[in-house]
Amino acid sequence: MFLAWHEMRHEKGRYGLIIAVIGLISFLIFIISALALGLAHQNTASIDSWHTKSVLMTKDANGNLAQSVMTAPELRQQKRNQQSAVVGITPTNINRQGASNHDGIQFVGLNTNEYIYQNMPISKGHRPQRANEVIISDKLSHYHLNDKIKIGLDDNTYTISGITPDALYNMAPVVYGQLTNWNHIKGVNQNFKASGIVSKATTPIKTNNAQLQLFNHDQFLKELPGYSAQNTTFIFMIVFLIIIALVVVTIFLYILTLQKRPNFAVLRAQGIPNRYLLRNTFSETLLLMLFAVILGCGLTTLTATIIPSGVPMYFDIPLMFGVATGILVTGLLGSCIPMLVISKIDPVTVIGG
């Protein structure tokens, strides 16, 4: 470690360049990880707030709750308890009364006596007291309490009675209202009463109806439109960037090792054990990667403080720590080839040559 630190201090420019390159790659990995997590959060924030363990919907909806429509008899067949809630979901739009611009939202209809409605956090205002009152997500920041709005295909006017924090479903802000308004807003027949049943119980919902299908939490998320493809894309991007970091570290260290072969040969000739030189290269790589990761973390922290709130980034400390550890370990793997070169140095051949 002493020799590695002394060498890095002596060659500040060379090692500073390596640290800068790896640090910028680390920064890019952190930012993409935060963006991936932020977009995933926009897909599932409401689902997570419902503590969803299982979801029951119609089979022909193919796992997309917003496409499911259940009839009153189908709902009555299912045994429900305090840990389950009937929901009606539809993607639609809202606009302030008299305004021409529309905002895309997910309308979620709820029964007022079930757990999702009763446990919903309210940051401003109050829960709906009348059928034409709704609660909106705080992401709809240009709407305010008591605003009159139109929702979807419904001709009725609704009043914003409350605001709930961080309500997002499938990349869109959520507007909560009465379940009885769901079919009007969605524009479906009065025979259809809901999209499905959400349960937070660890015991799955049971059904004997062949037209209905049960999804656990992971299966439900996998079927969210675009969710799996989006996550897979970001995972591949992160993996490729880590591989690029590995290649860059390996190339830099390999070139440095070739340049220092005469020095290593002299040290070997003076009786310095090969083990010491290998340990020095490993320590040098460890210091390089530590400084690079610290630089990447610093740039990420700075970015987090200045980035606009509308950018969907979510910084999770445990995840960032895991990514940083992955970058560090990958960089250490990159020292294997230079260490192999050092182990094969023959003092007589190098000095004599």
Automatic annotation (TrEMBL):
Broad class of where this protein is predominantly found: membrane
Family named by the database record: Belongs to the ABC-4 integral membrane protein family. HrtB subfamily.
Claim: Transmembrane is one of the keywords in the record: yes
Entry membrane topology: Multi-pass membrane protein
Subunit structure: The complex is composed of two ATP-binding proteins (HrtA), two transmembrane proteins (HrtB) and a solute-binding protein.
Protein function: Part of the ABC transporter complex hrt involved in hemin import. Responsible for the translocation of the substrate across the membrane.
One GO location term (cellular component): plasma membrane
Subcellular location: Cell membrane
Keyword annotations of the record: Cell membrane, Membrane, Transmembrane, Transmembrane helix, Transport
This protein's record includes keyword Transmembrane: yes
InterPro entries per the UniProt record, alphabetical: ABC-4/HrtB_transporter, ABC3_permease_C
TM segment ranges: 15-39, 234-256, 285-307, 319-342
Listed PANTHER family: ABC TRANSPORTER, MEMBRANE PROTEIN, HEMIN TRANSPORT SYSTEM PERMEASE PROTEIN HRTB-RELATED
Protein name in the entry: Putative hemin transport system permease protein HrtB
Domain ABC3 transporter permease C-terminal stretches: 235-347
Domain of life: Bacteria
